[in-house]
Amino acid sequence: MDTDTHAVPAGFERHFRQSPATDPWEPIYMRRDGQAFSLGLTIDTPHCNARGLLHGGIITALADNAMGLSCVLQMESVSALTVNLSMDFLSIGKIGQWLEVRAVPAKLGRTLAFADAEILADGELVAKASATFRIVAKQGVVSA
Question: Which residues form the Thioesterase domain (predicted)?
Answer without folding.
Answer: 52-125
